[in-house]
Amino acid sequence: MQIYLDSCATTAPHPEVVKLVQEIMKDNWGNPSSLHFWGERSAMVLEKARFSVASLLNADSGDNIIFTSGGTEADNLAIFGTVYNYSQPQHIIISSVEHSAIASPVTMLEKQGWQVTRLPVNREGRVNPDDLRKSLRDNTVLVSIIYGQSEVGTIQPITELADITKTHSKALFHTDAVQIMGRYEVDVSALKIDLLSLSGHKFYGMQGAGALYIREGIELQPLIGGGGQELGLRSGTQALCAIAALGLASQLAQKDLESESLRLRELRDYFIDLVEQECPYLQLTGDRYYRLPHHASFIINHPHREITGRKMVRDLNLAGIGISAGSACSSGKSLPSPTLLAMGYSETEALRGIRISCDRTTTKEDLEWVVMVINQLMSR
């Protein structure tokens, strides 16, 4: 028996996505930039996907969507594309629980003289909007706050944070929405968001394609020079199969968003309640209610056993269960999770995080089995 519970890392492509990709590889392999029949046919596939992504976001048009290789590149384009507009270092605000695709580029800029404010979070991993208001400066040019935190699942008050940014400054507001897309309604027309990153393989698309939403009138500088594809912001021949997969995944997500989000929330809450009853040594991390619908995360605090998150991942893998650890790994060495440290956990606790994330195939029986296996492992 095998149970996959790591959809925050990646999801299996939807069967309809697999079918579409096979058809495109067979029949639509032309370069979308070519002017002949083969190129025009591929260009139609590309633009259909663009409008599908725009529709999922309720964006004004497909012109707001720039395709990238994934969420990391979209995040980097948002950050560097903004700061390259300035000849001198300015001020950036991020949260202290950003994904490394945001945290690492910002650290690079900090070493080049950029001023960086990292907003603190509470024990649940949530930013206080008042801290953002107090941190805005005259030279703040970008605020980037993750929408749904991948490690502990906490959803940030993005509506309020974006409103504060636009009301009290001229800064652009960006959000990394990689984990939330396809599972939670996002309406960029209603939100005061300038830039938003997403990735297809997180919601049953294909690895290798993501997108950056750019509000009309926002100017970014390109990171890659070349043939001028994607409005000149992302040169290089587009990965047509992966982009088409992203487009179809967006259509499928939009179709089932309400029902699937409700189903995942019910599974999540059922699992958290079950863990609280059966596994008291697993301590919930992240906000209990402002949480990604498919996400549960815990610290292992067993009174008689010291076990890291990575050890739990390896043990469950041997039992045919796939989850992930909350701690990062560098050169084979376990390191305390920066996210858990920012939330006030000790270094020892920050090595003991685990994450369980459901997908469209997960059942209550799967979750019950996982709890039973964890108890068996901990009793050995």
From TrEMBL:
Q: Extract the InterPro entries matched here.
A: Aminotrans_V_dom, Aminotrans_V_PyrdxlP_BS, Cysteine_dSase, PyrdxlP-dep_Trfase, PyrdxlP-dep_Trfase_major, PyrdxlP-dep_Trfase_small
The answer to whether the entry has keyword Transferase is yes
Its cofactor is: pyridoxal 5'-phosphate
The UniProt record lists the keyword Transferase:
yes
- EC number(s): the record gives 2.8.1.7
**Keyword list, A-Z:** Iron, Iron-sulfur, Metal-binding, Pyridoxal phosphate, Transferase
Q: What class does this enzyme belong to in the EC scheme?
A: transferase
Cross-referenced SUPFAM superfamilies, in alphabetical order?
Answer: PLP-dependent transferases
Q: Show where the Aminotransferase class V domain sits.
A: 3-368
- Name the source's superkingdom: Bacteria
Describe the family membership recorded for this protein in Swiss-Prot or TrEMBL.
Belongs to the class-V pyridoxal-phosphate-dependent aminotransferase family. NifS/IscS subfamily.
Q: How does it assemble?
A: Homodimer.
Name of the protein this chain belongs to: cysteine desulfurase
Q: Which organism is it from?
A: Cyanobacterium aponinum (strain PCC 10605)
- Please name the taxonomic classification of the source: Bacteria, Bacillati, Cyanobacteriota, Cyanophyceae, Oscillatoriophycideae
